[in-house]
UniProtKB/TrEMBL annotation:
Pfam families xrefs: FAD_binding_5
Protein name stated in the entry: Molybdopterin dehydrogenase FAD-binding domain-containing protein
GO molecular function: flavin adenine dinucleotide binding; oxidoreductase activity
Keywords, in A-Z order: FAD, Flavoprotein, Oxidoreductase
Native organism: marine sediment metagenome
Domain Molybdopterin dehydrogenase FAD-binding: 6-72
Length: 75
């Protein structure tokens, strides 16, 4: 990231970045994957808000008891 700066894009699951790249809406010089960084697949609720890690799958969000109970708009 320090070399490419804004010319780089970060990819976690790819649901946003990959389709835009296929449509040639963006053409990053470098794509940096977060896949090997542990601890980015979490769902946390602290009573004030909900935190969802960058590597949390949509399926995990759907099946989360916290989301189903407290954030029904996402369920």
């Amino acid at each position: 990231m320090s070399i490419y700066g804004e010319k780089a894009k970060i990819i976690a699951g790819g649901v946003d970045l990959v389709p835009r790249m296929r449509l040639r809406k963006i053409k990053p010089e470098c794509v940096v994957s977060l896949q090997k960084i542990s601890g980015l697949d979490y769902i946390e609720s602290n009573g004030v808000g909900l935190r969802i890690g960058a590597l949390t799958t949509l399926r995990s969000i759907e099946l989360s008891p916290v989301v189903q109970r407290d954030y029904t708009i996402l369920y």
